[in-house]
Design a protein that fits this description.
By secondary structure, the chain is of the alpha+beta class. The protein has helices spanning 14-37, 41-45, 55-74, 106-126, 140-162, 228-236, 248-257, 294-303, 311-319, and strands at 186-189, 192-196, 212-216, 219-222, 265-268, 271-276, 279-282, 374-381, 401-408, 425-427, 436-437, 441-443. It folds into two domains: 7-162, Four Helix Bundle (Hemerythrin (Met), subunit A) (Up-down Bundle); 180-227 and 303-443, Alpha-Beta Complex (paralog of FGE (formylglycine-generating enzyme)).
Length: 444
């Protein structure tokens, strides 16, 4: 076992770590409650898309995972509801089949999740967060569960986007940039070594570990994510009708599904419109494009005479400080995200305009690397040298290989606890319902 975070890795003492874990758990549950209380029981139990679970499955699954890891794993308690473990095992039942399972009804799912949470908070209050137990040192298990719940909150927000009917969620608009027009189109990232991944971030997941040095040739990367307006130019130039821009599998997807634009876009009276959480609106030209697959991102990059950045290039652009030569936790430094640095946590229900969040830019001047949209990279999801699965193989190891592409940076739907400069997301290259966009790069 190589994973053994320590409190000193965060600069926090044990009680500060306990408060941090408590805050993360409470924030996650507040969001889960919003996402599940905003619809009626019928919508909670309905499957709004075969790509997603019924919301009530996510709710009980959140509670079940918390019971498995905190009540049973940390505290060694007996199972509360052993008969439901199989129902909420994500590997045992694919999403499309979950509505047919004898799931806990909404009231029972809420009660179960609440009871688990009450017991988990008692365990947090009484558990030593030091002592050489990797699962609990620095509060890892509690941080892992907070991240897990927030990841399911993101999937539930995707379900909200896929559901039909009127809007049930509201949020203020994100801040507008004040200097977007003066930003350069791209930024130079100089060549040389940098430290990728982490061995010290206490709540980092196994695929982010260990830290290791990578040597990266110089390259240029977009200052901001690709916008809807730029993507419209790709469409109008025949992007979805020109086979030459597409990987073979991507072209087959375009032809089979008759794709002509990003998911949720449609053309009406000569104007592109989109549906966003129950509201139909004009596609905003200066906002990062959203709901595109890896194949669409790759095709756009080819059309533009560019390419998607590799994962190592993306992380160097986001973390490398050329002045000190060190890798930061975030583009702006080591401090946790704040509202003026990144669009995270469902604070807004859309990406901010390209060029926003000047306070969150990297030392090289790259913006919106954290939050707004997940960014596809060209890289397959693979382990780092020295990878060790922890605390279970099914989180990362079973997904390694060429079938999944890496996404980096998070989106407006991601909470800060589950987003950092080293955080790695992955998905199939056909996925369009996720909150994914991209930026492009080129060689010197």
């Amino acid at each position: 076992m190589t994973h053994s975070p320590t409190p000193s890795a965060t600069g926090l003492d044990t009680e500060a770590l306990r408060r941090r874990a408590l805050a993360a758990l409470l924030t996650a549950r507040e969001r889960t409650t919003l996402l599940t209380d905003s619809v009626d029981d019928h919508e909670l139990t309905a499957q709004h898309s075969p790509l997603m679970s019924p919301l009530v499955w996510d709710l009980a699954h959140i509670g079940n995972q918390e019971e498995l890891w905190l009540l049973r794993g940390v505290a060694g308690r007996e199972a509360m509801r052993p008969e439901i473990d199989g129902l909420y095992d994500a590997f045992e039942h694919p999403r499309a089949s979950r509505p047919s399972l004898p799931l806990l009804p909404p009231a029972e799912a809420r009660s179960y999740a609440a009871e688990v949470r009450g017991r988990a908070l008692d365990i947090l209050d009484s558990t030593a967060l030091t002592g050489g137990r990797p699962l609990v040192d620095a509060g890892f298990a509690f941080g892992m569960i907070a991240q897990h719940e927030q990841q399911h909150d993101e999937t539930m927000l995707i379900t909200h986007q896929l559901r039909s009917g009127p809007a049930v969620l509201t949020a203020p608009e994100p801040p507008r940039p004040t200097d977007a027009a003066s930003l350069p189109a791209e930024v130079l990232v100089t060549g040389g070594p940098f430290t990728m991944g982490t061995s010290t971030e206490p709540w980092a997941l196994d695929n982010e570990r260990p830290a290791h040095v990578r040597d990266v040739p110089a390259f240029l990367i977009d200052t901001t994510p690709v916008t809807c307006g730029a993507y419209e130019r790709f469409i109008e130039d025949g992007g979805y009708t020109e086979r030459r821009w597409w990987a073979p599998e991507g072209w087959a997807m375009v032809r089979e599904h008759e794709l002509t634009a990003p998911l949720f876009w449609h053309r009406d009276a000569g104007q592109w419109l989109r549906r966003r959480f129950g509201v139909t609106e004009p596609v905003p030209a200066d906002e990062p494009v959203l709901h595109v697959s890896w194949y669409e991102a790759d095709a756009y990059a080819r059309w533009a005479g560019r390419r998607l950045p590799t994962e190592v290039e993306w992380e160097k652009a986001a973390r490398h400080d050329p002045g000190s030569g060190r890798s930061r936790r975030y583009p702006w430094g080591d401090e946790d995200p704040t509202a003026d640095r990144a669009n995270l946590g469902q604070r807004h229900l859309r990406p901010a305009q390209a060029g926003a969040y000047a306070a969150g830019e990297s030392p090289l001047g790259v913006r919106q690397l954290i939050g707004d949209v997940w960014e596809w990279t060209s890289s397959d999801f693979l382990p780092y040298p020295g990878f060790a699965a922890f605390p279970y193989r099914e989180y990362s190891e079973v997904f390694f290989g060429p079938d999944h592409k890496v996404l980096r940076g998070g989106s407006f739907a991601v909470d800060a606890v589950a987003c950092r400069g080293t955080f790695r997301n992955w998905d199939l290259p056909v996925r369009r319902q996720i909150f994914a966009g991209f930026r492009t790069a080129r060689d010197l």
